[in-house]
Amino acid sequence: MRYEKAEFKSAYGTFAQLPKSDLPEIAFAGRSNVGKSSLLNKLFMRKNLARVSSVPGKTITINFYGVEDVNFVDLPGYGYAKVSRSEKKRWADMMEGYFNSERNIKLVVQLIDMRHPATADDIMMMEFLENTGIDYIVVMTKSDKLNKGDYKKRLEKSKEELSFVPPENIIPFSSQTGENIEKIKAIIESHLEA
What is the dihedral angle through the alpha carbons of 188, 12, 128, 104, rounded to the nearest 10 degrees? Predict the structure, then answer.
């Protein structure tokens, strides 16, 4: 797959705006500011295709990127406290609509900051994916921010904390070094071929 050919297609602020799912989709989910846009940019070998912000809660739309005949879907981050109740409801409705509307979701890439244990929201998201039978992997972002000892400890601890996830599906990643980007691409491609 020629990831460098990725193009921004469209952004949707409500579930009602979403087009019918006519192509396979790879969705990216995680807390606000966990590094979804950075991972997408690394995947697409581009600096700023997906807009990166240091301000949490910046992606408030569902953003679609096209690569060949596949849609890569950047879902809005969850768990950001400083948004209004109506904004949280809009987000919940959008996510529920997205996942429950017979979309052709081949894989969800669930992102978690490697420096910290998974949050209650992360666990809830993974339980939801388990219950709906949607395949997912866990990408542990910001791995470069840990020293060798802490890296090893957090990876072991993550495998304990997420004991319901097969260990080979917990993948450390750094947008700075590109650690495991090829592995993530291989997993995406194997799910598209399945």
Answer: -50
